[in-house]
């Protein structure tokens, strides 16, 4: 099943904002349900306890509670219960607020309301409570009274009755008449969900605002990114256009500057590659032309010297052509083979002295007129023996080509490196060219490319070594430094 992917940057930013808003709302809702609600109940209970204690201290239970203007105490009510030995209950209450004190006696299961009086000028008028406010008609109050019969100490609790939640505080009252009195303070508790509704509304508003904000942000971000996209396509097509200009110092600006540097390097490499291919193709064409012209001479019977000499020229040119082709192929695949054979059996510890001695013996046979001097010491390294032989062979072949009478090879240890110095008494290398001869683009005065030296450098660089050429008083030295095997570096 394919997963739906949103390509629009604006939509992705908006969805991110929206998801964040929804998560925040959910977290607030959960926090409200599990923490804030309990916290709010406890606050109401503490405020109600203050009222309860004030009534106990004042010892005046017939006056109504005067906290109507306080939000947490608007619903607080209280009454006094008197239970005698004959199980007769008397309500001495100030319930509900702003009502005249009412005395309700319950005897033998029959309720009798005793009205109070209110002064009105010079007249005394009986004030009867409304039916729905009589304690005998208030089933919630009667339910609370049932908890007072066995009350001995102060009690605070929360309970449900008729699908309503009540916060209740009950305390026994000390009196001189040894009556069993109990003060009950209570309030119906209703969850205030306004905070949750505010959070939902604000979250919704934020989602709407996020839609327009995300559009603005997306346009702001995508505009330079679009320029970078087009710029990248031009680079991919090798169209070396003007460097992109983005003045910001943020990540996009840094990316633009990095891409400008990348284009500069790719352009340089591309131009050098073209020059190399043009030059190497010209060199190969020249060799092929020589081979073809001498082969045609044999066919036509027209010789410069003799058929044997003409055949030798064809053979020598063919060998040179084969060597150039092999070097080109080897250079192009060298990095891949080095990376993939790093952990193979071909990479192992070896004594560099044995490899150098074998290579010198091989070249001594080729040139009898050159004097060879060899001075070596044991140096253990970790490398691919075949690649190290190729490296040394290219440098020895170069030394043999330019040496006049002598080639000296020294192998010694310097710190953590094995150092091989190959000296020949040939001509100096131009100071302008001495640092370029290891570049595969370099071409000497005879028109030959330094592919062999480029191969040697790439091999040594892979093993974290160095290679350089140094002009001596007479002649030139090629110095190779290869890391010693760590356990033998001392």
Task: Summarize this structure as a short list of keywords or feature phrases.
490 residues, alpha+beta, 5-stranded mixed beta sheet
Q: Brief overview, please?
A:
The protein is built from eight helices and 16 strands. It has helices spanning 9-58, 139-145, 194-236, 251-300, 307-340, 352-366, 385-402, 451-462; strands at 77-83, 89-93, 102-107, 110-114, 116-120, 123-127, 155-161, 164-173, 181-189, 347-351, 371-375, 380-384, 406-414, 417-424, 466-471, 476-483.
Helices and strands, with pairings:
Layout: H1 9-58, E1 77-83, E2 89-93, E3 102-107, E4 110-114, E5 116-120, E6 123-127, H2 139-145, E7 155-161, E8 164-173, E9 181-189, H3 194-236, H4 251-300, H5 307-340, E10 347-351, H6 352-366, E11 371-375, E12 380-384, H7 385-402, E13 406-414, E14 417-424, H8 451-462, E15 466-471, E16 476-483
Parallel strand pairs: 11-13
Antiparallel strand pairs: 1-2, 1-9, 2-3, 3-4, 5-6, 7-8, 8-9, 10-12, 13-14, 14-16, 15-16
* Biggest sheet record: 7 strands, antiparallel
Distance between the termini: 61 Å
What's the helix-strand series?
HEEEEEEHEEEHHHEHEEHEEHEE
Strand order of the largest sheet: 4-3-2-1-9-8-7
- The overall strand count is 16
Q: What's the mean pLDDT score?
A: 77
Count of DSSP-assigned helices: 8
Strand content range: 15-25%
The general outline is elongated
The gyration radius over C-alpha positions equals 52 Å
Low-confidence parts:
94-137
- The percentage helix is 40-55%
Helix-and-strand structural type:
alpha+beta
């Amino acid at each position: 099943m394919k997963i739906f992917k949103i390509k629009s940057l604006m939509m992705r930013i908006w969805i991110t904002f929206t998801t964040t808003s929804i998560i925040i709302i959910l977290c607030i809702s959960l926090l409200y349900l599990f923490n804030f609600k309990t916290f709010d109940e406890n606050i109401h209970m503490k405020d109600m306890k203050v009222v309860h204690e004030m009534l106990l201290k004042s010892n005046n239970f017939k006056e109504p509670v005067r906290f109507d203007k306080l939000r947490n105490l608007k619903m607080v009510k209280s009454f006094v219960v008197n239970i005698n030995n004959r199980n007769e209950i008397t309500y001495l209450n100030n319930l509900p607020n702003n009502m005249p004190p009412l005395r309700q006696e319950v005897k033998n299961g029959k309720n009798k309301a005793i009205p109070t009086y209110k002064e009105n000028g010079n007249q005394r008028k009986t004030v009867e409570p409304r039916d729905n406010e009589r304690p005998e008609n208030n089933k919630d109050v009667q339910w609370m009274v049932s908890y007072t019969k066995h009350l001995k100490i102060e009690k605070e609790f929360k309970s449900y009755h008729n699908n309503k939640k009540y916060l209740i505080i009950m305390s026994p009252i000390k009196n001189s008449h040894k009556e069993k009195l109990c003060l009950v303070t209570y309030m119906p508790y209703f969850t205030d969900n306004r905070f949750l509704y505010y959070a939902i509304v604000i979250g919704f508003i934020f989602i709407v605002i996020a839609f327009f904000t995300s559009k603005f942000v997306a346009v702001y971000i995508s505009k330079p990114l679009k320029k970078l996209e087009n710029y990248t396509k031009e680079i991919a097509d090798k169209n070396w256009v003007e460097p992109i200009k983005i003045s910001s110092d943020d990540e996009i600006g840094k990316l633009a500057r990095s891409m400008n540097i990348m284009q500069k390097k790719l352009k340089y490499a591309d131009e050098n590659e073209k020059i190399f291919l043009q030059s190497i193709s010209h060199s190969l064409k020249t060799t092929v032309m020589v081979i073809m012209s001498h082969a045609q001479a044999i066919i036509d019977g027209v010789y410069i010297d003799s058929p044997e000499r003409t055949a030798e020229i064809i053979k020598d040119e063919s060998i040179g052509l084969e060597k150039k082709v092999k070097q080109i192929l080897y250079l192009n695949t060298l990095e891949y083979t080095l990376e993939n054979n790093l952990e193979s059996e071909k990479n192992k510890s070896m004594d560099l002295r044995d490899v150098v001695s074998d290579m010198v013996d091989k070249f001594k046979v080729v040139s009898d007129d050159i004097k060879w001097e060899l001075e070596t010491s044991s140096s253990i390294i970790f490398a691919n023996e075949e690649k190290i032989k190729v490296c040394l062979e290219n440098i020895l072949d170069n030394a043999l080509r330019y040496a006049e009478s002598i080639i000296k090879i020294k192998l010694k240890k310097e710190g953590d490196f094995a150092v091989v110095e190959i000296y020949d008494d040939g001509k100096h290398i131009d100071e302008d060219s001495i640092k370029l001869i290891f570049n595969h683009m370099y071409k000497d005065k005879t028109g030959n490319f330094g592919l062999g030296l480029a191969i040697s450098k790439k091999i040594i660089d892979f093993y974290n070594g160095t290679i350089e050429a140094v002009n001596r008083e007479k002649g030139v030295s090629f110095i190779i430094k290869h890391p010693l095997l760590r356990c033998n570096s001392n």
